Task: structure prediction
Amino acid sequence: MKYNIIVSLFVFLFLACNPDFNTNQKDIKYHSSKKGLKSNKKRIKSNKKGLSPKTEINQKNQEVANQNQEVANQNQEVANQNQEVVDQNQEVVDQNQEVADQNQEVADQNQEVADQNQRKKNMLLNDLRNLIEKANADKEKYEKRLKEEPTDQYGIWAFKRLRWHEEPRETVSDNSERSKAYRKLTYGILNDMDTSELKKFSEIIILANEVEGIFNTSSALGGNIDYVIIHLYPKKDNLDKLGISDLENLKDLFEKLLSTKAIVSKMLKQLLLDYQDNKNSIQTDTTKLKLHVEEIIKQIEENQEEAEKLKSDILSIKNF
Result:
């Protein structure tokens, strides 16, 4: 009991000495809160001071990023320029390819023209060589006729009526070289007649008294043709040295030359047929026969003059 009184007294005295206990408690709490705030403010300030280096880093990073973006933009611009150059180069390549294609097309066209010209030339060569071969074969026929000539010379008594004007003035029927050559050329013009027709033809021109006129013009024509054949035949394999123009010209001239002989041969054969049919009374009237034969001689002379000119033109083609 005594003990409890003492404790109570002690508490009372303690409280009496501290009248603002609650207030102090509040103050303690308040001051403690203020101290806490001050501490937070310090931390905030400390945080603010801590953000500055980070911001600077971010700014630097942003600056680096901007620089990198600028470099990237420059690189993209360079890439675009390079692409433009590539496109231009491709355009040049395409243009060059187009030119190459055009050149190839021209080359193909030129090759086609060359092939056509070659085919044309080959055709001309074949035609001309065949023409020369045929003419030479025909020449060999009347050469053979002379070689196989019988003693009566196929009954052509007209040969005995012709005599050379130059010494020794032998007749065409003699065996001198010029007489045999004359007969050969005459046989050439009369090549379409058989032996019986040759004899009858001789009789007709004797009756017309135009042996010299018929045979001289005919042998002269045959001589021009013979000369050209002898000129061309050994050269037929060299004709490819000539151009197309020369080949065309030569073929045309030679065909015309051979046609003069064909025309005259046909006229003389027709004379024989007309006489047999007594056309225009040429068989029964010698005067009419003579006039008819004279007209034929004029036509032979025209063909002979044409043959002379054609021969000259043919011989003017050289380089083969």
Notes: Residues 27 and 140 are 161 Å apart (CA to CA).
